[in-house]
Structure to design on (296 residues):
């Protein structure tokens, strides 16, 4: 360190000592408050762990319970066998696509005109 | 270090060692919180809590003072940034005559030297404070600030140059 560095350091240190005039709180008091906060944090952690464990127990209990009788299904087997109507699963939301294959015959595109000896 | 004195979750820290540096830790916390006494007290409590619970674990790789200063610095960065900005807003409001602030948020001293330090960029101001006022080496100060020693040295040199330039009118700081 040069002399000018030392002079600068002394000046800054003096100015800082004057600036930082706030009274230092008692260590005992700060320490006790920190201990209390640490204790309450631990208590909150235990409470959280207890709640998670209780939720897990409830979830397992409900998950293992017997299934309800009136559980609905996507496809009713009997309903399917009693009808000739059918719609593709992917088209089920589009009523206009539904047709009965015994009543509605799809119109096939045919041509009687020939072209070069072959039907178009 | 007395056995009964050692922290349960931090076996390399004793309560008496913390008590010995308590004043310096509080001073550093004050500086981190724009010199707001209540916020600084809260910050120190939070730092001690981290040590008590073992969330911040000291393993003797630096001095205890450097370690605790780092804990305070990290907590201040993560938790008190918003509070500090609110305090600055309050101070701005008080200065514009809208509201009188209950707590002073800047040191009372208005010496040109300290004003020049406060006018430095944050990192230069931090390293000047740590090295000049808290008696740390540049290496330890860099560790507290979370920068490499090389970077810390650059901030330190720039800060000294800036201070000498600003305070040049006093005629004492010209380089030899």
């Amino acid at each position: 360190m040069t002399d000018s560095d030392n002079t600068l350091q002394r000046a800054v240190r003096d100015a800082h000592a004057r600036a930082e005039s706030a009274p230092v709180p008692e260590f005992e008091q700060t320490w006790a408050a920190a201990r209390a906060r640490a204790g309450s944090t631990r208590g909150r952690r235990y409470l959280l762990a207890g709640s998670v464990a209780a939720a897990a127990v409830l979830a397992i209990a409900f998950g293992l319970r017997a299934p309800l009788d009136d559980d609905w299904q996507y496809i009713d087997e009997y309903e399917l066998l009693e009808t000739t109507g059918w719609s593709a699963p992917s088209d089920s939301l589009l009523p206009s696509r539904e047709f009965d294959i015994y009543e509605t015959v799809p119109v096939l595109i045919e041509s009687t005109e020939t072209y070069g000896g072959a039907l178009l | 270090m007395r056995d009964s004195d050692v922290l349960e979750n931090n076996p390399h820290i004793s309560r008496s060692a913390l008590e010995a540096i308590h004043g310096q830790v509080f001073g550093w916390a004050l500086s981190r919180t724009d010199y707001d006494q209540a916020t600084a007290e809260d910050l120190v409590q939070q730092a001690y809590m981290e040590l008590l619970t073992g969330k911040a674990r000291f393993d003797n790789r630096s001095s205890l003072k450097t370690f605790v200063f780092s804990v305070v610095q990290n907590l201040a960065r993560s938790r008190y940034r918003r509070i500090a900005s609110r305090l600055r807003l309050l101070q701005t409001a008080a200065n514009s005559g809208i509201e009188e602030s209950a707590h002073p948020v800047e040191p009372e001293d208005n010496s040109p030297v300290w004003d020049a330090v406060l006018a430095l960029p944050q990192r230069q101001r931090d390293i000047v404070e740590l090295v000049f006022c808290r008696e740390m080496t540049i290496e330890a100060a860099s560790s507290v600030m979370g920068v490499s020693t090389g970077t810390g040295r650059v901030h330190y040199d720039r800060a000294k140059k800036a201070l000498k330039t600003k305070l040049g009118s006093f005629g004492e700081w010209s380089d030899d």
Q: What stands out?
A: Chain B has eight helices and two strands. The longest helix of chain B spans residues 15-32.
